[in-house]
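Ligand-bound model needed. iron/sulfur cluster.
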Amino acid sequence: MNNNLEALRAELNYDKTNKCVQCGYCLPACPTYMTMGKETHSPRGRINLVKMAGEGKITDLSVLEEPLDLCLGCRACETVCPTGVEYGAILESARAAITRRKSYSIPQKAMRSFLFKKVFPSRKAMKLLGNAMWMYEKSGVQKLARKSGLMKKMPVHMGEFEAIVPPAVSPGERSSLPRVTPAKGEKKYTVAFFVGCVMDAMFRRINQLSVQLLAEVGCEVIVIENQTCCGALHAHAGELDQSKELAKRNIQAFSQIEVDFIVNNAGGCGAMLVEYDHLLADEPQWADQARAFTEKTRDISQVLMLCGGVTGKEGPAERVTYQRSCHMTNVQKVTTEPVQLLKGLPNVELVEMAEADMCCGSAGIYNLVQYDASMEILDHKMKHVKDTEAVTIITTNPGCLLQMKLGVERENLADRMRVVHLVEYLGQRCGLTV
Ligand code: SF4
Ligand code: SF4
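Prediction:
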């Protein structure tokens, strides 16, 4: 084997493809195979394409681009695979290999560099973005843009997404997440809270409620200033080297303080954080720190349950359904805690939807860049949602939250169905406000 092929194999994580025995057990679990019905859009087909590239049978990696771009990265295939194929690692390395060889136009390059290097990793830039959204909303420009029909003419369906973005918080509220929030009553744990980039800019109230809920159940909550984006968006876009840099920055930032847990409230971020040890596996000098970081990482529902759950107040009777985040189910393996928390609330009836583990089609920015494929998956999901006759859909990830809101809009159900994050719902049922 020549050196180039050897190097390509390492770059593609080729060795991991050999674990696939082509049995096809993963096919019914794959949303893109189920909706598109093509072998190249199934886990088995995608693994085979990467394998063929690693064997020199495919020399032009752009052949892999469309099948891999259409993958949601939901990793449902990993959960059902009997031989333990690490599909996520294969997907990420193949996407990074394609990105390294791709020639982007100058504006594309500039935009990618701006977003991935300057915006997502910078809390200051995300804060500015959040403030700009607030200005857009409060200045009347939003109303004008909607009234004039301008939003309907925006590219990549931006108008549809703009309509479901939650109300922005004011710059005053934005600066109020305290560095230390003491536990209410006897302290059970000291936790560091991971604020995220999108969560911090667009879902600030959910972050504020998360801190309140954690304090309510007995956690002292610390918010470290120099934390950064988890790197998930970068990894999904093939910018693996930048993901690694962000992982190192977070590991360093959180190692400054001694805490029991590092807590996040976004399924996608949490999945990235719990895999920092895998991400940095080829850098032995980071191994111990990365392992220590991942061992402490928890979804908020896990910590709330460890503290004995939340005490909901007697509220109106309500039927709800829970849309599982793929990354929480298939990567973090957190499945029972959100359900236990909801079942513990008085007067709340939780109805599970059919195919609850199937992705909603959000998958980072998949719904923006693969709009048609995403909507086909969402429409299928909404059939099951409607069958539950729930009035509230509960999610644990910002992407799922927006996607389900879009589903509700598409089905004209907004007058009788709402979508909320688990933390918002628990906060409401416990009488917390922000
Ligand atoms: S990924 Fe796993 S389940 Fe799918 S074909 Fe390969 S071995 Fe079978
Ligand atoms: S990650 Fe999801 S969409 Fe991609 S191959 Fe696996 S099951 Fe299919």
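The chain has a mean pLDDT of 91.
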